[in-house]
């Protein structure tokens, strides 16, 4: 259409909106495997538009890739992609997304059974959130629950700790509903490693 051709960087805008909608829709529908198939092309397009892509889309796509890898149980890839997101020069933007990324870092390590590493990560993350005045009810429940899980003496008690933490998180959903934009706590399952 002639009218669209006059819009600057129309291909870039179509790419940003299309992939954002496609990935978010698949995630909302718990279709992580379908979303995973889009990532190779997404990465190629991010490289193609590297200099022009809006910062909010760069960060959002980075987070969505982390979440998709997590959702397909590719925890190590999720952590690798998370490193790229956390090392972004624009990481101070979209602070809410950054805090969600912090939670996803801890969630990935929990899924991998990295309990010793989690001890220091939990404290560092909690301190970082306090310094940025991002104390939330969700943060308090989440950090307290993780600490209980990693200090449990066996897998059975860890699983009970996880179940209790999830119950506590779901109980505050209405207070913290924006956090569900970044992670579906309702569908969160965990088979705690020994």
Strand residues, percent: under 5%
Question: How is the main sheet built?
Answer: none
Number of strands: 0
How do the SSEs run, as a string of H and E?
A: HHHHHHHHHH
Shape: elongated
Helix content: 55-70%
Q: Kindly report the oligomeric state of this protein.
A: single chain
Q: Which regions have little confidence, pLDDT < 50, spanning 5+ residues?
A: none
Secondary structure tally, helices: 10
Rg value: 18 Å
Indicate the mean pLDDT: 89
Distance between the termini: 59 Å
What class, by secondary structure content? mainly alpha
What characteristics describe this protein?
194 residues, 0% strand, mainly alpha
Written overview of the protein:
This protein is an all-alpha fold and 194 residues long. The chain contains 10 helices and no strands. It has helices at residues 2-5, 10-28, 32-36, 39-48, 55-71, 75-86, 95-112, 115-131, 137-151, 155-171. The relative contact order is 0.09. The model has no long low-confidence stretch (mean pLDDT 89).
Any chance you could write out the topology, listing elements then pairs?
Blueprint: H1 2-5, H2 10-28, H3 32-36, H4 39-48, H5 55-71, H6 75-86, H7 95-112, H8 115-131, H9 137-151, H10 155-171
Helix pairs in contact: 2-5, 5-6, 5-7, 6-7, 7-8, 8-9, 9-10
Structure summary:
The chain is mostly helical and about 190 residues long. It has 10 helices and no strands. The protein is elongated, with a radius of gyration of 18 Å.
